[in-house]
Specification:
Elements (H helix, E strand, L loop, with lengths): L1 H18 L4 H15 L4 H13 L1 H22 L2 H9 L12 H6 L8 H12 L6 H12 L10 H10 L3 H26 L13 H10 L1 H11 L5 H15 L4 H11 L2 H19 L2 H8 L5 H18 L4 H14 L6 H17 L4 H10 L3 H28 L1
Helix pairs in contact: 1-2, 2-15, 3-15, 4-13, 4-14, 4-15, 5-11, 7-8, 7-20, 8-20, 8-21, 9-18, 10-21, 12-13, 15-18, 16-18, 17-18, 17-19, 18-19, 19-21
């Protein structure tokens, strides 16, 4: 019981400080200190492990990946690449309703803070043909922006999960890809059911030039994919090559290039990433994770409850995409396992956390998109709750079939 109180204190301290809008990186470090105190970790051992975690190759590689992902997002945004991609797509799709989904889905291929705002003006323009309400426009832009976060390897959520669980990221992506397909399908069902078909606008003829524009507008993303999937390069090297080539082919001025680089070198994100790895290390060396095993048996009902509750409520309360992984997953390691984890349990925990993110009023994408379209959140939730329920129930069904029965 005392162990449970200590673990609860660690989680509650995190949630309280985040609710007070403290910086997440600072909160995680302070909670690392709290963990050391609660589990009587010697101060010298604490300091040694903090330093070791900070200079560890895994941590440095993770920081490099995150910075390069941010760089590519800022580069494509600053160069107007996304706008050119969407203009070309208007000439390529047969069903105009897909313009309500495709731009946001494409933009979602590269993670960035409040990225849904990039597709909002396109959805606003396309939605005029159907006179859609603000809530529906918010839903379409918001939902399709986030269909990739279950399986796209450039998302920090997945990068952190792979680092914490110590499993190749592509293994996670492979096992969770069906949820990306399910999310896209659920979104399209809602789209085609609610929005009637209208014929394409005039002068929408296709051309090879439009296909080329789509490819060229986001070529760094395609190149990164090719280097990872076909040439089997590690993610850091693939992103590094793509980033260097953006500078080679860029027509931006030196001032514009430097501005993109400065935007990408986010000290806040770097410290957050480092704090995640420190928190993970201290949880391990303090014995806190072993204590969780003793309180929540790996195959008991309480373990399944924790797999849902920890990531879901962290995601719901914080609205920060990487927070539910950074905070909850280190506590779930004893249940999920490391190196050779139980992929079904990992999937269920991840989906539970992301469902919390999708429903969180603190989620920046949801808050900003609703504000852009002047939508009432309660009206958006009436639409959003059904596809979210489909995603969660599918994860729950997989868990029941493969682990409970």
């Amino acid at each position: 019981m005392i162990i449970l109180i200590k673990v609860a204190a660690i989680v509650l301290a995190l949630l309280y400080l985040i609710k007070k809008k403290w910086d997440l990186g600072l909160v995680l470090f302070l909670d690392s200190v709290l963990t050391g105190l609660l589990f009587n970790l010697d101060i010298k051992i604490f300091a040694k492990n903090v330093l070791s975690a900070l200079v560890d190759g895994e941590t440095l590689s993770l920081i490099g990946i995150v910075v390069l992902v941010l760089y590519l997002g800022h580069f494509l945004q600053a160069g107007g690449n996304f706008r050119r991609m969407v203009d070309a797509l208007k000439n390529l799709v047969r069903d105009p309703r897909l313009i309500l989904a495709i731009p946001s889905a494409f933009i979602g291929l590269l993670p960035m803070t409040a990225g849904a705002m990039m597709g909002a003006p396109i959805v606003e323009e396309a939605a005029e043909r159907w006179k859609l309400t603000a809530a529906w426009k918010t839903y379409f832009n918001y939902w399709f922006r986030h269909i990739w976060e279950y399986s796209w390897p450039l998302y920090v959520n997945l990068i952190l999960a792979a680092a914490i669980i110590r499993v190749p990221i592509m293994r996670i992506c492979f096992h969770q890809f069906p949820f990306t397909v399910l999310a896209a399908s659920a979104g399209l069902v809602v789209l085609f059911k609610h929005v009637p078909y209208l014929p394409p606008e005039e002068n929408n003829g296709r051309s090879l030039r439009d296909f080329f524009k789509v490819f060229w507008s986001i070529w760094p993303i395609f190149l990164t994919i090719i280097l990872i999937f076909i040439f089997s390069l590690n993610m850091l090297l693939a992103l590094g090559i793509s980033s260097v080539l953006t500078q080679v082919f860029s027509r931006m001025s030196l001032k514009e290039r430097w501005a993109v680089i400065v935007q990408s070198l986010s000290i806040k994100i770097v410290l957050l990433t480092a704090s995640v790895m420190v928190f993970k290390r201290i949880l391990e060396v303090s014995g806190a994770l072993d204590s969780v095993v003793r309180v929540f048996p790996p195959h008991g009902l309480t373990a399944y409850i924790l797999l849902f509750a920890a990531p879901f409520f962290v995601g719901l309360l914080t609205g920060v995409n990487q927070a539910f992984v950074a905070i909850a997953f280190p506590l779930l390691v004893p249940i999920i396992g490391q190196v050779r984890p139980d992929m079904v349990l990992l999937m269920f925990a991840y989906v539970s956390g992301f469902v919390g993110i999708l429903l969180s009023p603190a989620h920046l994408c949801l808050a900003l998109t609703a504000d852009y379209f002047k939508a009432e959140l309660r009206d958006v939730y009436k639409i959003l709750i059904w596809p979210v329920a489909v995603i969660f129930l599918a994860a729950l069904l997989v868990l029941i079939i493969f682990r409970v029965l």
